[in-house]
Amino acid sequence: MSLICPLCGKYKPEDSLFCDDCSKKINTDFEINIHERGELNADKTVVEEEAIGSDDKSLHENRGAVEKKDKGMSPYNYGSVESKYAKKSKRSGISLLWILIGVIILIGAFLIYNKTIHSKALEQRAWDAAVNENSVSSYLDYIESHPDGIHFDDAQAGLMKLKENEAVTWERLKASENLEELASFTRQYENSPYMPLVRMRIDSISWMSALKLNSVESYSEYISDSQSGSLNGDYMYEASKRYEMLFQSTPVNSTEMDSIRSTVNGFYVSLSQINHKGMYDYLAPEVFRFFDSGGSTRERITGELMVTAAQIGSRRFSFEPNLEGIQYVRESNGKFKVNVPLFKSYTENGTTVNLPGYIAHIEMNSEFEIISIFESKPFPGSP
Which residue(s) pair with 351 in the sheet? Predict the structure, then answer.
């Protein structure tokens, strides 16, 4: 007997009609018990033993018939033995024929099952998955895998509806600040022509969030997301530069840090209040850079600030340095270079405008007096 299963082409035991997988499937799906070859052989053995027994008897009777013939008796009994043996052989052949017919029927039923019931079940599962995901790619997957499927028209209708909603949704999201809504759009409309604009919007909002926090951690997260491909990384250079400004790479002396924080906090409180004496106390006698102006004496600088404040009137700036985010380096000449995350705001006509993302660059002498101060602004043209 062949060692190849007639249903699937896999190897099967020599004593079996089919491989184990096909036998189990036929027994389960059609509730038909497939006899193994050993069982068939056992039946065959019984038939053969009956035939052999009959043969022995026939030979005995045949011998008697011959003897009787020799004695002049009729050969009628000898012919009867041959007839009985032929009938039993015919019955055995008919049994094997019916077994073969049964096997053919089972094979046909199995093929019909695979072509109809099984394939329909697979198609329905694919359609259910497409509906649940409700995306362009899911409907396209169904259409490509089941071009003659019963839900083909439904899949095309789903695609058209999504395309109609796509433009409307993008128009609504243009001014959205909700990252989850924008991320949902990218998942639902993977091949949308608006995808570059959506990704730019996500990148811009993420950068604004990093600027608002204005910390080592926020810039590090933006850099990491850009490197992984989650963000476009359009602000990668600026994020890296700011990260370097605020990352404390050298050991911190707690006494030095306390003095630096005291000067920074005192100066910005005085600047917010336009306190002449406070600003005077925290500035060095000679300041060689004061924001966007050149150097001058502290007397002249504080005087000019008072005049400017009077001219501005109601538009008064407030400054909030992040003292916990201060980064500093002590140079060999005893001076300190300090970077401070800074939050600005001002009130105009009863409306408060917040301005996050500033970094103040301050240089102090050994007495912790400010000898230089200027800012990195979040955007060009920021006040």
Answer: 348
* Interhelix angle 37-70/76-113, nearest 10 degrees: 170
Grouping H, G, I as helix, E, B as strand and the rest as coil, residue 18 is coil
Six-digit token string for 83: 């007839």
**Alpha-helix residue ranges (DSSP H) falling in the chain:** 20-30, 37-70, 76-113, 119-133, 136-145, 152-173, 179-188, 195-213, 216-228, 236-246, 254-273, 276-282, 298-312
Q: What's the predicted TM-score (pTM) here?
A: 0.60
The CATH code of the domain at 254-376 is 3.10.450.50
Give CA 245 to chain center in angstroms. 34
Give the whole-angstrom CA distance, residue 279 versus residue 302. 7
By C-alpha distance, which of 64, 44, 45, 56 is closest to 84? 56
Q: pLDDT tens across 95-117, in order?
A: 777 888 877 887 776 666 565 66
Phi, psi of 308 (to 5 degrees): -60, -40
